[in-house]
Amino acid sequence: xxxxxxxxxxxxxxxxxxxxxxxxxxxxxxxxxxxxxxxxxxxxxxxxxxxxxxxxxxxxxxxxxxxxxxxxxxxxxxxxxxxxxxxxxxxxxxxxxxxxxxxxxxxxxxxxxxxxxxxxxxxxxxxxxxxxxxxxxxxxxxxxxxxxxxxxxxxxxxxxxxxxxxxxxxxxxxxxxxxxxxxxxxxxxxxxxxxxx
Length: 197
Prior knowledge:
Blueprint: H1 2-19, H2 24-39, H3 42-45, H4 47-69, H5 78-128, H6 137-162, H7 166-196
Helix pairs in contact: 2-4, 2-5, 4-5, 5-6, 5-7, 6-7
């Protein structure tokens, strides 16, 4: 009789343990927070925080996979729940950091847009004032073409800014600034050579 009762208790314990499933609500909340962080631009504007959230998510996935490999009555999802909650918290931090990073990038991009336009204007002025003479026509034509290319870059830069791609806008602005400075440097060198001749 006693053996029968123990058998029933063991069977009941195993059945109850087997009923414990993964913490679906916590896992879903973690996945949703990761999705929100990604859509907010965390991979670009808060890469460190995003990597921390992805690392937490990887640990959660590994723990869930480990539990799936265990015999059903022996599965325990306490650590999975903790990891899901940690993933959610890290993802929320990444989303907040992305918002801050995006605001900073927007401000920096706006400043660089102005600098790029000013640099382009200066380059165009330098081209118009470049020394002319025998053997300079091809060089001037090339510099004018480069200056026109900068105008195209400025259009792309503004389009990137308007679409919210502030990192792309900064990159294009820097390219325009660098190209403008290169044109001015070439013209300054040509003036210097002409003056030395």
